[in-house]
From TrEMBL:
It comes from Polaribacter porphyrae. The lineage of its organism: Bacteria, Pseudomonadati, Bacteroidota, Flavobacteriia, Flavobacteriales. It comes from the Bacteria. This is Membrane or secreted protein.
Length: 223
């Protein structure tokens, strides 16, 4: 017991314990800096709607498909708004893109008004499209589960290169691949989509830091 003197305990807390924490965090960081790419370069919005100014490129996009039953999508979008949109509204180049059939314009206008009652809608992008355009975009995700009535209960995460991100080791999905996030599940939005968005943004932040470091190193050696 003499080994655990007050002086040694203080030294441990001041120097050794922080070092252990740093090493553990550093090891963990290496495991979580990359979010898997499940589908390379899906169709961009400009490819299905050339007149649209909205694009996946250089944005972090959460994509959803409202389908023909806009009323049925309402609760799902409110979940997405509260648990994801408001949390990431201030993040650079973040957007939520919701696709809906062209003949549902009036219903979507009413939905936007309801969501916008207590929300800044600046980064909510509602995009109308034909049946063929919606199905073509969705098929490019290479997700096996088909649309139902042009809608989906899933939200999808698209990176700045228009690639679909997700998980390859998810415990709750077959074969471990998580292509989309269940909009009906508050816990899945909280525990999976929110975490994966943070991982993706950290990935971009780490890449930005690495580029700046490389530039500084090259400048130092006169390149």
């Amino acid at each position: 017991m003499a080994f655990f003197t007050k002086k040694r305990i203080v030294l441990f807390l001041l120097f050794i314990f922080p070092l252990i924490c740093f090493l553990l965090l550093s090891t963990g960081k290496n495991n979580f800096t990359k979010l898997p790419i499940l589908t390379q370069q899906v169709l961009d919005i400009s490819e299905i709607k050339p007149t649209s100014s909205t694009t996946f490129k250089e944005h972090v996009s959460v994509v959803c498909f409202l389908g023909n039953d806009i009323e049925a999508s309402k609760t799902r979008l409110f979940n997405l708004n509260e648990k994801i949109y408001k949390k990431f509204f201030d993040y650079k180049n973040f957007q939520i893109v919701a696709f809906y059939p062209e003949d549902k314009y009036n219903a979507v206008i009413n939905l936007k008004k309801e969501i916008g009652t207590y929300t800044d809608m600046q980064k909510w992008i509602f995009t109308s499209a034909s049946k063929e355009e919606i199905e073509g975009l969705y098929d490019s995700f290479s997700y096996k589960s088909p649309l139902e009535n042009l809608g989906s209960t899933k939200a999808f995460l698209i990176d700045k290169n228009a690639s679909l991100r997700g998980r390859t080791n998810d415990e709750d999905t077959k074969e471990g691949k998580l292509y989309g996030y269940n909009l009906n599940s508050i816990s899945e939005l909280n525990d999976k989509l929110k975490d994966d968005l943070k991982v993706l943004y950290y990935e971009y932040y780490a890449a930005f830091k690495e580029r700046n470091k490389n530039k500084a190193d090259r400048k130092e050696v006169g390149l």
